[in-house]
Write a structure and sequence with these properties.
InterPro entries: Cro/C1-type_HTH, Lambda_DNA-bd_dom_sf, Nuclease_put_TT1808, Restrct_endonuc-II-like, Uma2. It holds the Pfam family Uma2. There is one protein chain. Helix content is 41%, strand content 17%. It contains ten helices and 13 strands. The strands form four sheets. It has a six-stranded mixed β-sheet with strand order 3-5-8-9-10-11, with helices on both faces. A three-stranded mixed β-sheet has the order 4-7-6, with no helix packed on it. Strands 1-2 form a two-stranded antiparallel ribbon. A hairpin with a 6-residue loop joins strand 10 (251-256) and strand 11. Helix 2 packs across helix 3 (29-37). The longest helix is centred in the first third of the chain and has 33 residues, at 45-77.
Length: 290
C-alpha cells in the first residue's frame, strides 16, 4: 500500500494523467487506473516497478530542464562573464536539497543525479544541439551568434573544397554531428567542425571514436570547457589536431597529437597551417570574416 500511495503522490506532483503514466510505463490504462484508484489492492512487483521507473524518468527530465533554466538565466544575467559550467553544476548541487516528497520544480529545489545522466537519456531530450554531455556533466551551449555561424560555415567550405580538390577520402561535418567515444555512455559532444578520415567510425548516430581534426569556436558559456576539459578529452582519445578559435581574443590555439602540452598560438591575421595535411592547407581567420 505504501508503494501505491507513493506512486499516486508522485503522479500528482508531476501533474500527469493516468493515460500518460500508462503510456510511459508501457502498461494498459486500465491496469494503471485500478492501481491509482485503489481497486487493485496488491499489484505485482513488476507492474509497480514499471510505473516507478517511468515516474523516475519523468522526474529526472524535469530536474534537467529546471537546471538548464537556472543555468541559462545565470548566463543571461552575466553577459560579460565566462561561465565555468562544471563548477556551476557543483555549486548547484551543494546549494540544492533533494526533497524526496516534493517534485515541484519552480524553485529548482531538486538536485541532479548525474549517475543517471547518460547518452541514452540525452537522446530522449530530442535533437537539441544546445545540450552536450561530457564525462557525465551536462553542458549547455548558447545559440551561436551570427559571427560564430559565419565562421563555422566558412571554415566548412574551405575545408570541404580542399578535400574535394585533392580527391581526399576525409569528410567534413559542420552542422552539428554527434561525437561519441568507445565504451563511454556518459559523453556526447557536438563540435563545431569535425573532419573524419576513417569511414568505419561513421554511423547513423554520428561519429564513434576520435576524428582527425576538431574545431571549436569559443563562446562565453563554453570557454573554460573548450580550453580545458574538452581539450584534454580530445587529446586523450586520439584526435590528431584540435583548434580552439576565440573570437573575443582574436586568437587560435592548436594542439597536435603526439606533442603533449604543446600549444601553438596564432592571431586571426596569421596563416595557420593544418598539420594533418602537412601544411598544404592553411587558413587566415580574418580572411573568412571579410
Amino acid at each position: 500500500m505504501e508503494d501505491n500511495r507513493n506512486i499516486k503522490e508522485r503522479k500528482k506532483q508531476l501533474k500527469l494523467t493516468t493515460a500518460q503514466v500508462a503510456q510511459m510505463a508501457g502498461l494498459p490504462v486500465s491496469t494503471v487506473s485500478k492501481i491509482m484508484t485503489g481497486e487493485t489492492k496488491n499489484p505485482s512487483f513488476l507492474t509497480i516497478e514499471k510505473i516507478d521507473k517511468a515516474l523516475a524518468h519523468e522526474e529526472m527530465l524535469r530536474r534537467v530542464y529546471a537546471y538548464f533554466k537556472l543555468l541559462k538565466e545565470y548566463i543571461d544575467s552575466h553577459p560579460n562573464d565566462s561561465v565555468n559550467q562544471i563548477e556551476f553544476e557543483k555549486l548547484y548541487k551543494r546549494n540544492t536539497i533533494l526533497n524526496q516528497t516534493s517534485y515541484e520544480l519552480t524553485d529548482c529545489s531538486l538536485a541532479i543525479d548525474t549517475q543517471r545522466i547518460n547518452v541514452e537519456f540525452i537522446h530522449e531530450l530530442g535533437e537539441d544541439k544546445q545540450i552536450e554531455l561530457l564525462n557525465g556533466h551536462l553542458i549547455y551551449n548558447e545559440a551561436p551568434n551570427p559571427k560564430h555561424q559565419i565562421m563555422v560555415q566558412s571554415l566548412g567550405r574551405i575545408i570541404d573544397d580542399f578535400i574535394h580538390s585533392n580527391n581526399g577520402k576525409c569528410q567534413m561535418f559542420n552542422i552539428g554531428i554527434n561525437l561519441y567515444f568507445e565504451e563511454d555512455e556518459h559523453t556526447l559532444l557536438i563540435p563545431d567542425v569535425v573532419v573524419l578520415c576513417d569511414d568505419s567510425k561513421l554511423n547513423e548516430s554520428g561519429v564513434t571514436g576520435a576524428p582527425d581534426w576538431i574545431i571549436e569556436v569559443v563562446s562565453k558559456c563554453t570557454r573554460h570547457l573548450d580550453y580545458n576539459e574538452k581539450m584534454h578529452r580530445y587529446m586523450v582519445e586520439g584526435v590528431r589536431e584540435y583548434w580552439i578559435i576565440d573570437p573575443e581574443k582574436e586568437r587560435v590555439t592548436t594542439y597536435i597529437q603526439g606533442e603533449p602540452m604543446m600549444a601553438y598560438i596564432y592571431s586571426f591575421d596569421d596563416d595557420i597551417p593544418v598539420k594533418i595535411y602537412d601544411g598544404k592547407l592553411s587558413i587566415i581567420i580574418n580572411s573568412i570574416l571579410g
